Amino acid sequence: MSANLKISPNATQLARDVADWLVHYEQEVLKQQDRFCIALSGGSTPKALHQLLAGSPYREQLSWDKWHVFWGDERCVLPTDERNNARMAYDTLLDHVPIPADQIHVMRTDMLPKKSMEAYAKTLHQYFDGQPHTFDLVLLGMGDDGHTLSLFPGRDWIHEQKAWTRSYFLYEQEMNRLTLTAPVVNQAAAVAFLVAGEKKATALHEVLYGDYQPDKYPSQVIKPKGELLWFVDEAALGG
After folding, report:
1. Cα(119)–Cα(123) distance, rounded to whole angstroms?
2. Choosing a second label site near 127 at 20 to 30 A (CA), which of 70, 71, 121, 195?
3. Domains of the chain: total
4. φ and ψ at 74, to 5 degrees?
5. How far apart, in whole angstroms, are the C-alpha atoms of residue 201 and residue 199?
6. Domain encompassing residue 110
């Protein structure tokens, strides 16, 4: 996989490097259009990024009223549950910056998963049909097993070619999962993976430099027509 690698010495600096890049990228996007559409991710590294963006000097440098916020995936738990990705984003970022409420699109967990994803897909199509790309930026993490979004090894929806969303029951976690799929993410203007920690080293090496084995390393199906960036720390590279 061709990779635009940006290497940070540790996870703390990685979050800061992403924040610096994001400020510049958002400003460049908004020179060309009047909205900035971003899909957020769960996880510890995005959490650190959110906290930086919500504070000075980043908070003052971003045009929050132009942001339109989506999620890459979600666990079907109540919004009050600590495992809920939207709750994490509100706690660490969205409750602290002035994004209009009607520009924030959570994946609803208070309805049947299939209906939730049908509604989410409808919103996405309303935003992006007829546009040159879908999201301006998708932020992604990668699990120790090489999964991203809720695309886990060995699942058939890794290979989805048409639908933009999927829901399914993940038996290992005993819960329903909601997720975007490769077709909508790969039409983004930019996708940035944030990967930190030595536990990710084996999977990261295989995803970046190994054979194409998406059933084993689903992150490999992310091949955006726009820019693909990997923000990684030295531990994740095995350093």
Report:
1. 6
2. 195
3. 1
4. -155, 150
5. 6
6. 4-55+65-175+198-227
